[in-house]
Amino acid sequence: MDEADLQLFLRIATLGSLSAAAREANLSPAVVSHRLGQLEQKLGVRLFHRSTRSLSLSEDGRLFLSHAEALVEAMTNARASFSAPGQLVQGVLRVTTSASFGRQHLTPLLAKFLALHPQLKIDLHLSDQVVDLIQEGFDVGIRMAEQIDPGLVARKLAISDRLPVAAPAYLARHGTPLQPADLAQHECLILNEQRQWKFVTGNGSELAVQVQGRLRCNHGESLREAALAGLGICIQSIWNIHRELASGALVPVLIDYPLANKSHIWAVYPSGRLLAPKVRAFIDFLLAEWKDVPWALVNSSAA
């Protein structure tokens, strides 16, 4: 399928007029009409409803519109991927990640990244709600998860373990749990509805423990602060507590029983898209910046 015909179709759909698209492309209306007819013949459908006074997308045309946009974008990205290494990274890069992680580990890097690419703009969206990258129009998401949903391409940026931790003052008052079953006697700080904590025993089997406590919260940073205040034991990602671990303000518990669920940090983008230069530059930058940080073990292999 000819890319020029696809682009012409997109301009007709945007402008709502054959003659306007013809003027923009410096072609005659007859040529534009002929090329549109050829495209419709190849597809075997009518893309537009035409009359002497109006032009509108048909139902098939509306369906084809998103495919045509994706095809043109893929062709553009394919050409970009073979361009010179020094190609200018430009445009707007739309990024989404969790509020806590973004605030602590992504936002501080943006000045350096933008300085490397003066023609680039960043639209950063921080939210603890997982957004639909395609629906919301994001180029890339940074996500913390064990696995990534189908339909997304994932690049592993880091392995960041999670640990059950508590403040020394809490453990001095209530004692230190020696095995997962001991958690039944402790105040546990619960994230969302995660009342079942899973551990790996010495023989490699999983052990699920029901936990309880007087504080439940949907925000990891708030639970960290509660743990620092001595309110109980909570599970935290190392990226969120590495400073507190280093200072001793929080200490790991149950170190002989690692958590069963491993959390990784991924850069994700929609499948079916070639990696745009701005996205590639961003991912490579994060891999370089995070390779020696104290909270992550970096693994640059693709998922």
Shape: elongated
Task: Indicate the proportion of strand residues.
Answer: 15-25%
Major β-sheet profile = 5 strands, mixed
Helix content: 25-40%
What's the count of strands?
14
Point out poorly predicted stretches: 298-303
CA-CA gap between termini: 32 Å
Backbone CA Rg: 26 Å
Which class do the helix and strand fractions yield? alpha/beta
Helical segment tally? 11
Overall description:
The chain is α/β, with parallel strands linked by helices. It has 3 domains: 3-81, Arc Repressor Mutant, subunit A (Orthogonal Bundle); 91-160 and 263-289, D-Maltodextrin-Binding Protein, domain 2; 162-252, Periplasmic binding protein-like II (D-Maltodextrin-Binding Protein, domain 2, 3-Layer(aba) Sandwich), CATH 3.40.190.10. Helix content is 39%, strand content 23%. Strand 9 (196-200) and strand 10 (206-210) form a beta hairpin. The longest helix has 23 residues, at 59-81.
Write the layout of secondary structure elements.
Elements: H1 3-15, H2 18-25, H3 29-43, E1 48-50, E2 55-57, H4 59-81, E3 91-97, H5 99-106, H6 110-116, E4 120-126, H7 133-136, E5 140-145, E6 152-159, E7 162-166, H8 168-174, E8 188-191, E9 196-200, E10 206-210, E11 216-217, H9 220-228, E12 233-237, H10 238-247, E13 251-252, E14 264-270, H11 277-289
Parallel strand pairs: 3-4, 3-5, 8-11, 8-12
Antiparallel strand pairs: 1-2, 5-14, 6-14, 7-12, 7-13, 9-10
Helix pairs in contact: 1-2, 1-3, 1-4, 2-3
Keywords:
alpha/beta; Arc Repressor Mutant, subunit A; D-Maltodextrin-Binding Protein, domain 2; 5-stranded mixed sheet; 11 helices; 39% helix; elongated
